[in-house]
C-alpha cells in the first residue's frame, strides 16, 4: 500500500489517508445559505468515497461576503442547526469535514444594501463597483471570521480552513494588484498580510490550540503586479510562526489571463497535472515545517503517489475529479489505478446556475445517449 493510503494527522486530527477534497462550490444551499436536503445527499455520497478529509464549499462569514447564489453560509447562529446536520451526515457516512471560511470581497454578488468591499476603491469607468474597507470594516470582518470559527466548532466540524486564495478578500489584501492602500493594511508585505494574520489569530483564540486550522493560499496570482511566489513563501513563514496547522497551495484568480485555478484541457498531459510543482519545491527549500496540501490538476494516481513519496507535499487535494467521480479515491484504494475520468473541461462550472447545482455535465450528457 502506498504512503497515500496510510494514516496521517493534522494537529491531532487523524485522517484515514492523504487525499483531501479541496473546497468546491456546490450551489446547493438555500438562497439564505442554509443547508438543504439536496446538499446533504451530495455530501453523503462524497463522504462514502473514503477521502481522508472533505473541505466544504466556501462558506460566507458575512452577508456582504457572499460570492454566489445558493452558497452555504455560516454568518449567523441561526445557521448552526443546519450545519450540525451537514457535519453529522458526513460523519455518519465515514468522513471528516472541515469548514472553509470565506469572504468574497470585491467578488461579492452585492445583496440588497450590501455593496462589495475591497482593499481599495475599484471603478469601472466612472462607476464605483467596490468600496475600500475602513479600518473599522476590517476589525468587524476579523470578528466575523472569529464568530464563524466558533460556529464551526459548535456545528461539529473537524477543522477549519481560511480561504486566502483565488482573488477573494484575504487574497485581495495580500496582492498588490488589488491592494493599493497606504495604511497598516497596505504597502509592505507585512502590512498586506496583517488582515490574514489577524483573522487566523482571532479564530485561534476562539477555538483553542488543539483545533486544526488550515489556510488556502495562492502560490502566485498570475496577474500584473500580483503577489509572487517569493512573497507567498514569506507569508507562509509568518503563518508558521503564528501556529497554522496546514497550508493548501493553489494559484491564480478568475481574472488571471491563462493560469486560472481550474484550467481547461490538461487531462491528456500528465506532466502538467501538478500545476504548482515549482512553488511547492520552493516551499520545501524554505524548510517550512507546516504540512503542505497541494491542489491543481491531479488525475493520475501514480503522480499523486510520486508527489507524496518524494516529500513534495504531505497531502493531495482533488476538486473537479471528484465532481465526475465522487468515489475516485475508493476506486484507487480498491486497486483500480486507472486515471480519473474527468477531462478538465470546466463544463461543471455551467451547472452551478442549474437547479441541480454542481454535477459533471459531460457524464450527464453521456447517460442521456
From TrEMBL:
<dbReference type="GO" id="GO:0010181">
    <property type="term" value="F:FMN binding"/>
</dbReference>
<dbReference type="InterPro" id="IPR051799">
    <property type="entry name" value="NADH_flavin_oxidoreductase"/>
</dbReference>
<dbReference type="GO" id="GO:0016491">
    <property type="term" value="F:oxidoreductase activity"/>
</dbReference>
<dbReference type="Pfam" id="PF00724">
    <property type="entry name" value="Oxidored_FMN"/>
</dbReference>
<protein>
    <submittedName>
        <fullName>Related to NADH oxidase</fullName>
    </submittedName>
</protein>
<keyword id="KW-0285">Flavoprotein</keyword>
<dbReference type="InterPro" id="IPR001155">
    <property type="entry name" value="OxRdtase_FMN_N"/>
</dbReference>
<feature type="domain" description="NADH:flavin oxidoreductase/NADH oxidase N-terminal">
    <location>
        <begin position="3"/>
        <end position="335"/>
    </location>
</feature>
<dbReference type="InterPro" id="IPR013785">
    <property type="entry name" value="Aldolase_TIM"/>
</dbReference>
<keyword id="KW-0560">Oxidoreductase</keyword>
